[in-house]
Amino acid sequence: MNITEEIQARVIDNLDYAFPAKPKPLSEPERAAYIARIEQLLKEKNAVLVAHYYTDPEIQALAEATGGCVSDSLEMARFGANHEADTLIVAGVKFMGETAKILTPNKTVLMPTLEATCSLDIGCPIEEFSAFCDEHPDRTVVVYANTSAAVKARADWVVTSSIALDIVDHLDANGEKILWGPDKHLGNYIQKQTGADMIMWQGACVVHDEFKTKALEDLKRVYPEAAILVHPESPAQVVEMADAVGSTSQLIKASQELPNETFIVATDRGIFYKMQQLSPEKHFIEAPTAGSGATCRSCAHCPWMAMNGLVAIAEALEHGGASHEIHVDPQLAERAMKPLQRMLNFKKNS
Ligand code: 13P
Ligand code: SF4
To answer: Rounded distance, CA 324 to CA 331, Å?
Structure first.
């Protein structure tokens, strides 16, 4: 182990996930009142709701009903950047809000809570990651979007899971050697698919890291006709069992296109809302997070995505301020914009 590998191991081993409390459940009349209030506030503030597929179904439904967007992290970035609203309210996790702010510095970017983080972001602090990069100056630094603005600013490219394979393939064809961070499972999957020369930061997603092969094999025996859909943030042995591997939007597409009637889905269960909406006749089952070695810290639902509730959205729109508004240091944003823009341009040109 060299010095930065040791630092990495220390960072990853000592991570302490203090999982946040979920929003308090609302009664039906309360829900209806909050939805009506949010609809009114969106109009008053010329704001648009941009939600990730992992948020709770009622948040996704509200984004759709109000002309907002429900999508993967790449499309969230695009939608926010191209929309004419003065204010973006981003229901997701913090890196999604920061990405929106970096791409549209003149807009007000609000989030239901600024405490909705991501284990990949937490597990990749800028000082240690920067030291890792400094040790490998010959490598092109490619970072996943699930990182802080500072880590993005240190990178040559930012990618999301729906575009990572194409970009790494392109860099590999150019003869570039890659330093990848932070998700080790996604990095290993891309390395296997492209054959690129990659070294990895050792981060992991607390949700996808929990999927278990043994329990998945048992479930597959119960539903032998089911297709298995897996997000590549999952461990390699789980990915190997998949009929389709991909980003959230790619998995949704696979659920529509594959002929199977039943699907076992290894990603956050929030995605079932869109899958079921697009294929009402199909049957979707959560991949198991139980079994040997399981802690069920996540149980297939990102604890930070779960923080995006109606009360917090209404409060963010009504009051904004320090607990809701995203700010990114302008100099950092300028540097982070370059690798982000590279990703958006790459997709446009491909
Ligand atoms: P997507 O880029 O596929 O939306 O995934 C984001 C994410 O956080 C997955 O856990
Ligand atoms: Fe991060 Fe995992 Fe939550 Fe996605 S599901 S936001 S990678 S912790």
So the answer is: 21
